[in-house]
Amino acid sequence: MNEALDIEQIDAGCLSDILGYEVSACSSEKVGTGQTGASYRLTLEAERGPRTLLAKVAAGNLEARARVKGGYAAEVGFYAHLVNQLAVNTPACYYAAISDDRLHFTLLLEDLAPRRPGVQAEGCSTAQAAAALRNLAGLHAPRWNDPALYEQTYLLGTSGQRSASSVAGLAQGAVVEFIARYERDLGTEDCETIRRAVPRIESWLGAEQHPFTVLHGDYRLDNLMFGESADDVVALDWQTAAVGSPTRDLAYFMATCLEPEQRRESERSLVELYHGELCSRNIDDYSFERCFEDYRRDQLQATLITVIGAIYATGERSASSDGMFLAMAKRSCAAIRDLGTLDL
What are the strands, taking DSSP E only, across 3-133? Predict the structure, then answer.
């Protein structure tokens, strides 16, 4: 079996074929509030194997799916072809399939309970941030400056995916609506920062990406699960998996997950921690000074993802999603100003 399945097609017989042992019964319950996909917890009756799994499938109408189908391909490709070559903590994947038109996909993943998801609007502790950055280095280091990554056409930023100009065009097309939607809550200073940042995205994305590696692309609290131990962090939602500058993930996490004062106090030590983790994984040609300068420049990742995510998400708009995007926008605008990103 290797076809994309809708949630209604995932039953006991289907799971028996996929898992290789008999599943006598299966029920599903929708979980989470994904913006570009739908997730379901499957409860299985079987004599062995996991008792629960997470099923992730496409969501929204076909027109909405067509706008994000590159993301569907990136996530399925990541689990099917790349994850075993990396040192980042992710859920185990039991099945990955996508339709030829990329409008339908299916992932069957490990259920990570009792780990708890981060909450974007609430932010995180500095200790949680440190654990997340150690995990991030495990993503970036193994394929550091590997030119073979550009042959993985399912990854964003490689041939066959949107160019810098088209991605920047999405942000440019969304920024007016984004500001109109959130202007009252953002305030004049943040709106002006966003207006100034968006036109710079094309030249930023189009510049040479060196060093380069595998990126998560949306590495933030809502896409991380935290366990009880300090280093138990698992990264989810790989629909923005890409090739590009590693500090895009670093800058995005720091800017969107930490409150401005908290970030200012811990910024240098956390970037040093991340850089030290790279060095411990044999990345020895990348100085801390270069890393911090790249970190400053790559703050535009937050503007790009926040604006596009808010306006083009296929999920239903809600007070919760608005709170998430507002927190991301406010924090990242402060980081852009603090770090002089637009002057680089």
Answer: 23-31, 37-46, 52-58, 93-98, 105-110, 116-117
